[in-house]
Amino acid sequence: MLFFASFTSSILFNLLLYLCFVELSSTSFIPLEREIQLVRSYLYIEKVCFGERLQVHFDIGDKSLYRIPPLTVQPIVENAVHQGIIKQAEGRKIR
Fold it and tell me: Where do the domains of the chain lie?
C-alpha cells in the first residue's frame, strides 16, 4: 500500500509541476533548463501510462546558457511520443 501512495504522490507532483509551468509561462523567454523540467515532468507522466514502451535518454549540455520561448520543446516531444512512439507495438526510445 505504501508503494502505491508513493507512486501516486510522484505522479501528482509531476502533474503539478507541469500545470504550474504552463500557468506561469506567460513570459517571453525562459531558461532552457526550465523547459527541460517541463519535458521531464511530461515524460514521467507518459512513462507511467506506457511503461517500458517509452524509453527516454537526455543528453543535453549546459542548459543554463540558452533562453527560449516557453512551450517550445515540450510540444515537439509530445508529438514524438504520440505520433512516433506510442503507435509502435514495441515502443521506441526518445533521445
Answer: 2-94
Exposure pattern of 21-48 as b/e (b: 16+ CB <10 Å)? Answer: beeebeeeebebebbbbbbbbbbbbbbe
Instruction: List, as own/partner pairs, every contact residues 37-40 make where C-beta atoms lie below 8 angstroms and the sequence separation is at least 24, other chains included.
Output: 38/71, 38/73, 38/74, 39/73, 39/74, 39/77, 40/14
User: Does pLDDT of 9 surpass 50?
Assistant: yes
Assess contact for 95 and 59: CB atoms under 8 A. yes
**Phi and psi dihedrals of 23, rounded to 5?**
-65, -40
pTM: 0.70
Instruction: Give the C-alpha separation, 78 to 42, whole Å.
Output: 8
DSSP percent split of the chain into helix, strand, coil, nearest 5: 65, 10, 25
pLDDT in tens, 12-52: 776 677 666 655 556 688 888 888 988 998 898 888 888 88
